[in-house]
Amino acid sequence: MSATHYDGYEGLNRLALDRAGQAEAFDAIGDRYDDAFPHKDGQLTSGAWLAGTLPAGSRILDLGCGTGLPTARQLTDAGHRVVGIDLSPSMVELARENAPDADFHRLDIADLRGGRLGGPGSFDGIAAYFSLLMLPRAEIPYALGMLHDLLRPEGLLALSMVEADVDDFTIPFLGNSIRVSGYLRDDLRRVVHDAGFDVVGEDAYAYAPASTDVPPEIQLFLHLRRA
């Protein structure tokens, strides 16, 4: 990919209606999400890396902010300026309650084109915890390209995905159905490298949600720097 990816980002429009359907599932889940995922050691550790590596007062995008816990609150408590987006109205409402010092918007990732929350180089860091896995694989490189553009030179991206060789695969999720994509870790490293990122750190965690309908999973956390 070239240094600027906006022109190639039109692929993220293709399944906008389907993503709206995914948002409806999270609207129905609401605050049960945090009850179902009570232990987020990997996300907290990754968030601490992002918070501690960036200069104080950095502007950070929380992509797919969910309930605002733990990431938006963790980053604002560390003194950073957080802008969170989520497609689910219920999640945005909960995030505003849980992390009142952050700024939240009901937006799809595709809405960030055209400088909606700031143009290229407008963020010092980005947290994308389990948000890109909601996209089909064909759209993930375009999304990573846009995140690359939104970061300042040498800006940081904290990315997490579930390790799985699946593409737009339907799974049961807290009494609803959602579609997810994943990569095996070598493939994920290749995808982020092709999008213009250097991997500066990596962790993997075995995680079993507090739910009977979601099997244990391997969560991958990549710490990335814009090359």
Automatic annotation (TrEMBL):
Signal peptide residues on this chain, from the entry's feature table: none
Q: Does the keyword Transferase apply?
A: yes
Q: Which UniProt keywords apply?
A: Methyltransferase, Transferase
Q: Ranges for the Methyltransferase domain?
A: 60-155
Q: Name one GO molecular function term.
A: methyltransferase activity
Q: Does the keyword Methyltransferase apply?
A: yes
**Gene3D superfamilies attached here?**
Vaccinia Virus protein VP39
Show the Pfam families listed in the entry: Methyltransf_25 (PF13649)
GO BP field: methylation
Name the UniProt record assigns to this protein: Methyltransferase domain-containing protein
